[in-house]
Amino acid sequence: MLDYDKEAVRYDASRGGEPRAVAAADAVLSLLPPGTAALLDVACGTGLVTRQLAARRGLRVTGVDAAYAMARRAAARVPGAVVIGDGRRLPFPGGAFDAVSAVWLLHLLPDPEEASAVVGECARVLRPGGVLVTSVDKATSHDVGSDIDAALAGRPIRGAVDAAARVGQYAAAHGLTPAGRARFRGHGQGRSPRSTVADVHRGWFTGIPPDSASAGRFAARLAALPDQDVPRPDPEFTLHAYRKPPHA
Questions:
Q1: Which of 5, 12, 20, 171 could crosslink 187 through cysteines, CB 3.0-4.6 Å?
Q2: Domain map of the chain by residue range?
Q3: Helix axes 213-223, 193-201, angle to 10 degrees
């Protein structure tokens, strides 16, 4: 897993910047029920999406992130609205929010038990009738049928803890029911062969140890591709929404 305190410096530039943040925020907002007044953005990162969410009239947004360097950047973008905290033990009372967003979080967790714990915490801090919006199938969203995907074929892939079916199970286990879905484009996140080689060597692909022989083999395949600096198509990400019963 990446060190997000170190990753904070390059995070925005490597993740599509403002265009992606606008697309993500619009997709989250499309799933919020009318009357939503208080939103918690879990794993808010550098606050690019959080700032876009907070720009919606009448919506009070709080961001929380476990990485100090990420939260510091988010706090500069959304002053007075960002705290340090672990998604498995959120520092808020039960029923404190009308909605919770957790975008690009569950796929980072090591096993289904921890992912379910995060969903449980999100459910706890939701008021009755509130909605959780979370990303699903993050890794497979990047498979766009390009020559880069072909070069990476055969790499070890662990079972995705954020697979849509699994996330639905976590939600159900904590009393949440399906409440919609949305998709958005990951602007500026199309991979190039050269950038993918760099990702292999910095541990982005969890099944490929950065300094291993297998990393060298996959890097060599990627380095042999044409158009080394030409990005392939952008990924499309998926959000699912889950509602807490009104009389929970």
A1: 20
A2: 4-138+160-189+234-243
A3: 170
Tens of pLDDT, residues 130-168: 999 999 999 889 899 999 999 999 888 777 999 999 999
Rounded to the nearest integer, the mean pLDDT of the chain is 91
Task: Give the tens place of pLDDT for each residue, 163-205.
Answer: 999 999 999 999 999 999 999 998 888 999 999 999 999 888 8
User: Looking at domain 4-138+160-189+234-243, which CATH architecture does it have?
Assistant: 3-Layer(aba) Sandwich (3.40)
Other CB atoms within 10 A of residue 54 CB: 19
**Which candidate, 63, 50, 125, 138, places its Cα nearest to that of 94?**
125
**CB 69: neighbour CB atoms within 10 A?**
17
Reported residue count of the chain is 248
Q: What is the pTM of this model?
A: 0.87
Q: Across-strand partners of 181?
A: 240
What's the maximum distance between 2 C-alpha atoms anywhere in the chain? 59
Closest CA to 163 of 237, 106, 102: 106
